[in-house]
Amino acid sequence: FHFDSSRTVCTVMADWGKCLDFGVSIARQVVLDAFEAQKVVSLKTSPADLVTETDQGVENLLISAIKEKYPTHKFIGEESVAAGASPVLTDSPTWIIDPIDGTTNFVHRFPFVAISIAFAVNKQTEFGIVYSCMEDKLYRAQRGKGAFCNDIPLRTSGLEDITKALVVTEIGTERDDLSLSTLTSNIYRLLKIPIHGIRAVGTAAVDMCLVASAGADAYYHVGMHCWDIAASALIVSEAGGVVHDISGGKFDLMSRRVIAASSRTVARGIAQVVEAFPCERDDGLPDADQAIGALTQRDGHWVSNDFLKLPCDKPCGIVIESV
Amino acid sequence: MGSVEECMDAAVRVARAAGQVVLEAVKQEKHVSTKSTPTDLVTEADRLVEELIISTLRESFPSHRFIGEESCAAGEPCVLTDSPTWIIDPIDGTCNFVHSFPMVAVSIGFAVKKELEFGVIYHCFEETLYTARKGHGAFCNGLRLQVSKEKDVSKALILTEIGAKRDPETLALFLGNMEKLLRAPAHGVRIIGSSTLALCQVAAGAADAYYQFGLHCWDMAAAAIIIREAGGVVMDTSGGPLDLMSRRIVAAASQEVAGFIVQQLKPIGYERDDCGERHAVR
Known about the structure:
B: Fructose-1,6-Bisphosphatase, Chain A, domain 1, Inositol-1-monophosphatase (chain A)
């Protein structure tokens, strides 16, 4: 990996465009080199939650390249967090990085693997980059300046009628009873609306970029992390789409839940039928809104309180351990 | 009649030409209708592309027979005889086509004496061609294809499709099957919306297995021979030999993974493609 140190260092942080260009250049270079390397596979939280040396290597390369240019900036990276770093988002300029989104796909060479880089200042995402390496598609967006794929402007489908929607989601890495039954019952209820179909390609970042490019009309998921969607959430909204919490409320980057859609109507339609299993927030903070996602046992399975429209009298910050 | 090689060359040419038509059509406005269920979509492009493929091939091979998705929908018999027969899906992934979801293929299989001789599948968005001829290996854009050979389902990436039926019983069976495989625990399940391209991912070693209820003979014909020639296995969901007209398939990188999947699956019934009454010509 050769890094071009002749670029002008951006000392006045008003123009994040230069940081964006820098992010784009390293995204392309680092990943293509890394893919040629041998893969040693380990497990994280479950037998389906894979990580490779490439994940760790790529993240280290990205962070060291960025640190050299912007030594005061902060980082939230998937593998650094796994190694114990704090994933709290402050007002400081912060790079939010997933070195390989779709690690399972990467291990199998299934052709949807992306690097995701987002940049936030004052807790607001200023730009996002998703590079889908095997497709050679570079998605990017800068706040207020639109979204693009390989420099072609993106627009979501604008679909309002959910019965004609193609919806993307993820199977996820959880394999415990609650997560699996929530996953399948969500898909069941969506298909019964009916919708045109469900797709699952194996990476949250690419799924959301498919919504941004109008290849699909909505994406929903519970359990992915802030680094998976920080960039693509901006790409969707700059392409004219909406990004909400899975309850239909305000999107919270650290909540590990999202609906991204072509329109508020479609997002609401999805929010009405999907449930969330409880998920510990990425920033580890207890959240008043967590109670909204709290579950009640009903007929032998878990149903969310806001789905039942029950008042929630449980304490905040409910966490159920994944297996 | 033409040798098998001549037929295959013709198939490659017409698949590429049809693929270009599909790629142009995906940018245009689409007129969408439904077939067996409200989610079983068909467009004018499906009919036009199939007509293009059949008329082109018929010119070179006037004595051959044709089984095409849209012809069968229009009442042509869907029966495989000993005659040289072309088995065609003009647009595999019609729902994807309607949405411009980038997984759409043209699929052409060819059988003589009811045995598959070659298969050609053209991935329209990637402009990638998958081919295989019996005894001559499988290729993607000239590169040799090889399945992953994965034997351990707990390291398997499995692909499937939902199928056209959306009644509660079918959905419960579909989700139950998927959940069982996730608990194996497989590495993951993917749904891309095109059975032919999903099967090609297995042939390429990018996925380890595919299973589905509800696909048609025109979805299986080309892909089955591509997978076999890449070293994989294809079979019926009961574990018996593949039955092109049965509306169901298990394909895998190894007997072991296929066998495991066969054990887990609860069947979902779909009417056979060669059911005479449905396609009676009056």
